[in-house]
Amino acid sequence: DKTDPSLLNASSAVFAKAINIAFPSARSLGIDIRAFRCKDVKHGDYQCNVAMPLYQKLSALGSLPPGVKSPQMLAQSVVDVVVAMDEGENPILCELSVNGPGFIMCRIRPAFLEDGVNDIIRDGAPTRPKRCGGGGGAGDDNVVVVDFSSPNIAKEMHVGHLRSTIIGEAVCRILEYAGMDVKRVNHVGDWGTQFGMLIQYLKEEYPDFSYDGNDDGGTGSSAMPNITDLTVFYKNAKSRFDESPEFKRVSQLNVVSLQAGDGECLRIWKMLCDISRLEFEKVYKRLDISVEECGESFYNDKIPSVINEFDQHGMISVEDGGAKCVFVPHSKVPLMLQKSDGGYGYDSTDMAAIKYRIKDLRARHLVYITDFTQADHFKMVFAAAKMIGWVNGDSHRLDHIGFGTVQGEDGKRFKTRSGDTVRLVDLLDEAVSRMESSLRERASEGKANISEDEVHETACAMGYGAVKYFDLRRNPTSNYVFSYDRMLDTKGNTAIYLLYAHARLESIVTKGKAEHGIDVDALMAREDGGGKKPRIVIEHKSERNLALHLRFFADSIDETLNDLFPYHICDFLYDLAIAASEFVTQCKVLGSPEMESRLFLCRATAITMRQCFDLLGIRHVMRI
Ligand code: ARG
């Protein structure tokens, strides 16, 4: 059995072992024996601060061993036990010392760091944390539903949906990496009240309309509507809705007819969905998003029995107008399961959806990714699902990731110059075209490693990567200012900087082969590493620092699995790139006596970076 690749877990385990030996009574005191990373590497790699609380507890109980007169002395006796351990018991810690009031400081053993790099070279991938890669087939407890992207039919996808899409894709990839059976669900808004007016508008504008469901838009009917731009159609319908009370009235009736299965309404509805779907799919294709549509309409026929179930539990209160509501603890507003006109809304659908996900999909973990304004809605949905007993707090985990607003440089909600919401496609086009010109400029300076026909594809990888990374690298709950200049900067914590750093490492590896005859790929492919094992020798300070950073990968995954915030991986990736750039500036790689070991270190770093890009949904490039 190998040591836990998580340095946090492995070093904590050594301290726990030592404390149990030195102070056997400590175990029952419920003190958390955790090690953590030192803020300043000058003082150590890891530290453990357990000596102070442990000293207090033991002295209060009068059970301090004679001779231990201070937290420092207690810390020293822990250190003595660790130092006396053999390598089997303590494969990872060295250079232990006691600092200040009793902090135990330590370093990670060079051999442990070397093993880590060798493992990456041997496996062609960074070592997974223990929590990862488990899971099993269907029927296990590992089904997770991630509800993300979820735009609304007939409305344009906007930057808010972009956030949900980008964060959702990364969350899915990370959960999949951890061995979960992830159901990626696109809960599209295909059943809302907007259809009332859209259907009415279509009926009035295209009276001869008929649609057979082929994606040619309609049957032989001469009045086939040419609705290429659904947003314009939506705007027109909306203004008539706002202007004409009669139009408004019949529109509302359409919603009820649609939900009751009226044939004509359904036909129009289906056509509008088909047109929208094609637009959404274009965005998903560009951004490498995979998500399966299971929209609001899917739950329509499941809602009556849900209402019935709440009714049987005596949890429905009927309002004056006849609306059926469910009140949950700590909320003055109720969930509305049925409106007074008999129609169903957002709440109805979400209650049917949560039941379906738990009972039919057998999910243990549900993740919803929307903007923060929906936090109260999901609190109520979760509370109601617990109240009725579908969800059990101990065996189910429910998460709502409520992300912040995307702002323009003026600090207000991100808009175009004319004040319209920014169309997602335009925004993506802009990122790519800016990237293309920057790559061409580079080529004109003679710095490019790619040919002209690779420019577009490289610009797409970098441009989309930049947009994604700019979002993922921060806590999703915070707002951010959308800025091309900042996200496309070649310096700082951007995808562009990282993609360049990665390509630079690979270009060193390529030169190693071309100019010095050391073929890392061939050595990696051979079981024996070319007669001798790929031996990593860590000596220089910046080699050591890079190898140590590679070891943090497992912890960044663990952290991400805890709160589902991908920025932990971004932080890790950025720190790794900085450690790598310091390494290649401080240590001569090509033509040095340590060349082989150092080329492997470059490759191991590149492999780990690629893994991170992949988890974030960012395409990497080998050359720029
Ligand atoms: N369509 C909604 C919106 O655009 C998001 C749906 C989120 N998922 C859900 N199950 N309510 O805001």
UniProtKB/TrEMBL annotation:
Positions in coiled-coil regions: none
Keyword Signal: no
E.C. code: 6.1.1.19
Record-level GO BP terms: translation
Annotated GO MF terms: arginine-tRNA ligase activity; ATP binding
Domain DALR anticodon binding: 498-624
Catalyzed reaction equations: tRNA(Arg) + L-arginine + ATP = L-arginyl-tRNA(Arg) + AMP + diphosphate
Domain Arginyl tRNA synthetase N-terminal: 13-108
Entry keywords, A to Z: Aminoacyl-tRNA synthetase, ATP-binding, Ligase, Nucleotide-binding, Protein biosynthesis
Family of the protein in this entry: Belongs to the class-I aminoacyl-tRNA synthetase family.
Record protein name field: arginine--tRNA ligase
Species assigned in the record: Cyclostephanos tholiformis
Residues of the full protein shown: 285 to 908 of 908
